[in-house]
Write a structure and sequence with these properties.
- The complex is a heterodimer.
- Chain A has 9 helices and 9 strands.
- Chain A is an alpha/beta fold.
- Chain A has one domain: Alpha-Beta Barrel (TIM Barrel).
- In chain A, the strands form 2 sheets. Chain A has a 6-stranded parallel sheet with strand order 4-5-6-7-8-9, with helices on both faces. In chain A, strands 1-2-3 form a 3-stranded parallel sheet.
- In chain A, helix 1 links the parallel strand 1 and strand 2.
- Chain A is globular and about 50 Å long.
- Chain A starts with a strand and ends with a helix.
- Chain B contains 9 helices and 9 strands.
- By secondary structure, chain B is α/β, with parallel strands linked by helices.
- Chain B is globular, with a radius of gyration of 17 Å.
- Chain B has a single domain, classed as Metal-dependent hydrolases (TIM Barrel, Alpha-Beta Barrel).
- Classes of the chains: A alpha/beta, B alpha/beta.
- The structure holds zinc ion.
Chain lengths: ~260, ~260
Amino acid sequence: MSTPIIDTNVFLGRWPFRRLPLDEAALLAKALRERGVKQAWAGSFDALLHHDVDGVNGRLAAMCQRTDEKLFLPLGTVNPALPDWEEDLRRCQEKYRMRGIRVFPNYHRYALNDAAFVKLLKLATERGMLVQLAVSMEDERTQHPLVQVPQVDLAPLVEVIKTVPGVRLQLLNAFRSLRPDLLLKLVNAGHVSVEIATLEGVAGIEELLKQVPVERLLFGSLAPLFYFEAAALKLQESKFSDVQDKAIRRENAARLMAR
Amino acid sequence: MKFWDSHCHLSTPGRTIDERMGRLMEIADRVGVERVVLSMGLPPLLTNPTPEQLRKKNDETMEALLHWNHRAFGLCYVSGEHVEESLKEIDRCVAKGPLIGIKLWVAKRCNTPEVETLVKRAHELKGLIVQHAWQKTGGNPPGESTPQDVAELAGRLPEVPMVCYHAGGNWEAGTRALRPHKNVYVEIAGSNPTAGFVEMAVREVGAERVVYGSDAAGRSFASQIGKVLGTQLPEATKELIASGNLQRLLTPILKAKGMTV
Ligand SMILES: [Zn+2]
């Protein structure tokens, strides 16, 4: 039996541009459970384009609880470009008991050195919350012509991270644009982790581990937007030790969330 | 499940072509990829190669097969920008050499008479014909074919089987463009493993016309195999996509060359 998986990158709600085979929470829960996932960190697709972020977060929390509260761990969204976003952050923690948040700087149109985002990182860190930053959601070449969303520019993050001691940040869907040298700078600047949903290249994990310490690498599938098997097979495509395998499947994520 | 990968490149690390092949096949073994179809020689992949560069790329592809001809096939890289020289390459590498078809990339769009000439010649030899196509939201470079261009070519040559790489990139548009043309096979490589991709391809063009490929080593075998294994399609359908359809497509040229499957 292989180690149970913590999938750090799943979504509930509706992807705006097509229906997906597993976009019903109950179906996704069943599929993940059958594939050995014991915990799934869930954000909401609705957070990408909705202005009423608190409505999105409330529904997400309820859906996780109603569907499979042991499996789904909700991560609400805070959009620091919206008025009084601080209240959304407060509700995420105090009302919905969320242990982290998921942010979408490209869909919400702010740069990573904007004062509001830096403040969000500081406040979330003061509250002990994990911040997941989605670098992309979709290949820009296949986006809807009216919704062309560039990848997040991560370059300013290197300096920003240094100003927020104790921050815990995880990049989601980072690999299409993230150059290895920038990843290394980010990992060295603070507690920055990545997950494998958009990692490409044959034996990609094996290659990545030559540069990044295994402690910073987490399992993520981007299900149900991506086929879960794509991420699962990446574990099989690379060769690494049992200790590294356990770390990527579960332990790094468990430690990151527990702190 | 065993996979025949219709779309690979020599971009694994290695000091020699043989080392690169060894690495590629070592990784292929971990995920059930039995055979690979190679094209375009060593990196960097050249978008608009000169005739001399085409010859060099094809030499590299043929060298890769030397110790791997039991597991690897190679395609002859040709260009609609250099028709005469490309015809000579087809003669050298396919008619008289070990390669089993042609690869057309982004030098010239495939709805042109030049590309049609090359496709016809490859078909005379029973070769596998593979055309890259990507419909990009931000627009295509001048030589890059869209799936509509492939549909146009396929409509003019309805008796010629051909493979459209990447399902046209934007696969929702691509499968629609290609579905009327029964001679076109839809290959799934080189894009995000977006759920629903292969289900839609099967729904629109039928399971017999969907072909697995990865675009390794730049892409991961895993992410692209996930597109097949992640569906809820019947096992027999998955097997057609994984290897059966490509085996059927390759049968005429392999027979002509006296190669066994
Ligand atoms: Zn390719």
